[in-house]
Structures are given as structure tokens and as C-alpha cells.
């Protein structure tokens, strides 16, 4: 076991391992590209949906159940299905990652909007605010902590699952996992898995820090 971890450490810090198109730097850039792009697409779909059902109170049952259905879909199976339909295209990966990311954003956005005190909304309307003003000036600011939590959860899920790109012959850090399995190279498999875990943890900590900063700043401004 000691020898295995020693070899893993050597693999991770080797200069040769970080250079070239098969190097860690390049694979990391690919992995982040897949993850960030998929999360942005998911946010563009899920945020308006969550805000709409949270603001109007209509369609919540259908939207939440569809989101739960999307969460239950097997990601690899979905990748293979889209891959068979669309051919050799990164869209098979993006579709699967977006389907994975949408549920957390929808449910957290809806939960944040639903948690806004109805009396606060009534008071805003009583001051002459129209529906869109109540939404953007009252509901969204109050729901923002949960909305950001949904985005954070989705990004971490996508980063952890983006290894599936390598399953259909694309890049990313999953390349080390699948190539290592094919070559029976345990060090490479562990290296790929460790890198994915490190990226997920670093992004989670960064987003958590940003979230704390933003809302601490808002609380300070309120005082």
C-alpha cells in the first residue's frame, strides 16, 4: 500500500505528466470546459423554470417530479443513448451532464422562492410594486442563498460525473481512469480519481467562500 501511494505521488508531481496533450494540465482544462459549459446550459434552463414556478406557484408538482425523474436517469446509459442517436459528438456528454445538473437547480430555486415570507411579498405589492418588480427586487434577493446552493451542488455533481466523456472517447480527467482500467494501471486510475476529487473539493470550497463573502457583504450593507 505504501508503495502504491508513493507511486501515485510520483505520478501526480512528475513534470512529464503535466505536459503535452495527454498531460494533466490539458486534461484538467478539458474537464473544466465540459463541466462549466454543461452547468451554464443547465442554469439557463433550470433557473427560469424554478423562478417561474416559485413566483406563480403553478406547475410545481410537474416540474419537481420531472426534475426527480432526470436525477434518476442513469448518466452513462443516457450518454450511450444520445451517442448512438447523434453519433460521435460531445453533445452526448453535454446532454447527460445537463440532465444531471438541472434537478438540483430547479428544486433549490423553487425552495428558495417558496421560503420567501408571503407577508413580505404582500407588503411589496402594497407599496405599488408590480409582479416583475416583486420578483426581481424582493423574491430573488431573498431566495438567492438557496439558489446559489443549487448551482453549487449542480457544479460539483457535474465535475464528479464529467469523467463519462472519456467513456465515449473524449478527454477530461476521466481519460486517466478509463485508460488506466484498460491498461490495468492502478496508479493511473487512482491518479485520475484523485484529481477529480481534488477539483471537486477546490471548486466547492471556492464557491462556498464566495457565497459566504457575498452574503456577509449584503448583511453588512443592510446594517
TrEMBL record:
Keyword Zinc: no
Domain of life of the native organism: Bacteria
Topology in the lipid bilayer: Multi-pass membrane protein
Subcellular location: Cell membrane; Membrane
GO cellular component, one term: plasma membrane
InterPro entries linked: ABC_transp_perm/SBD, MetI-like, MetI-like_sf
Keyword field: Membrane, Transmembrane, Transmembrane helix, Transport
Primary location: membrane
Transmembrane segments: 34-53, 60-85, 91-111, 155-178, 190-210
Swiss-Prot/TrEMBL GO biological process terms: glycine betaine transport; transmembrane transport
Family: Belongs to the binding-protein-dependent transport system permease family.
Name of the protein in question: ABC transporter permease
Highest classification ranks of the organism: Bacteria, Bacillati, Actinomycetota, Actinomycetes, Kitasatosporales
Amino acid at each position: 500500500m505504501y508503495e502504491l501511494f508513493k507511486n501515485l505521488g510520483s505520478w501526480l508531481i512528475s513534470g512529464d505528466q503535466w505536459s503535452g496533450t495527454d498531460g494533466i494540465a490539458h486534461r484538467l482544462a478539458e474537464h473544466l470546459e465540459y463541466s462549466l459549459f454543461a452547468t451554464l446550459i443547465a442554469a439557463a434552463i433550470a433557473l427560469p423554470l424554478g423562478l417561474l414556478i416559485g413566483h406563480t406557484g403553478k406547475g410545481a408538482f410537474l416540474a419537481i417530479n420531472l426534475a426527480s425523474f432526470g436525477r434518476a436517469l442513469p448518466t452513462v446509459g443516457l450518454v450511450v443513448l444520445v451517442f448512438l442517436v447523434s453519433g460521435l459528438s460531445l453533445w452526448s456528454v453535454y446532454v447527460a451532464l445537463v440532465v444531471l445538473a438541472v434537478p438540483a437547480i430547479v428544486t433549490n430555486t423553487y425552495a428558495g422562492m417558496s421560503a420567501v415570507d408571503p407577508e413580505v411579498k404582500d407588503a411589496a405589492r402594497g407599496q405599488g410594486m408590480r409582479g416583475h418588480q416583486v420578483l426581481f427586487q424582493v423574491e430573488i434577493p431573498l431566495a438567492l442563498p438557496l439558489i446559489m446552493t443549487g448551482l453549487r451542488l449542480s457544479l460539483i455533481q457535474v465535475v464528479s460525473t464529467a469523467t463519462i466523456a472519456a467513456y465515449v472517447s473524449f478527454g477530461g480527467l476521466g481519460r486517466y481512469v478509463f485508460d488506466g482500467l484498460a491498461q490495468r494501471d492502478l496508479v493511473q486510475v487512482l491518479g485520475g480519481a484523485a484529481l477529480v476529487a481534488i477539483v471537486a473539493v477546490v471548486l466547492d470550497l471556492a464557491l462556498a467562500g464566495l457565497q459566504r463573502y457575498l452574503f456577509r457583504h449584503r448583511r453588512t450593507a443592510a446594517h
